[in-house]
Write a structure and sequence with these properties.
96 residues, alpha+beta, four-stranded antiparallel β-sheet, 2 helices, 4 strands, 40% helix
Length: 96
């Protein structure tokens, strides 16, 4: 089995859970992070009560994305800030 480039999935999960909590507190929206498995998305971290509303997925890299059904509550710059922060967390784990 091929080992992912992340130092520890549980460390990464913890960081992404914290980011999701911070986003919820600051912007009052729920997000969750998913692993991209071909055409499928698999829950990885973040909000655990996933609502069955139409959710929009934003690709962060080849392996991960961020999902929310509440992107409409944010402006474009706020969304870009969240995506940039999530990407930086993922990049820091890829380098370890």
């Amino acid at each position: 089995m091929v080992r992912e480039t992340y130092s520890s999935d549980s460390d990464l999960q913890e960081k992404l859970n914290q980011l999701a909590e911070d986003i919820q507190k600051k912007y009052n929206i729920n997000v969750w992070f998913v692993k991209i498995l071909g055409k499928r998305l698999s829950y990885f971290a973040g909000e655990t009560e996933i609502k069955l509303l139409p959710a929009k997925h934003k690709k962060l890299n080849e392996k991960f994305g961020i999902v929310s059904s509440e992107w409409g509550k944010l402006g474009e710059k706020q969304m870009e800030c969240i995506v940039k922060l999530a990407k930086s967390i993922l990049e820091s784990y890829e380098k370890k």
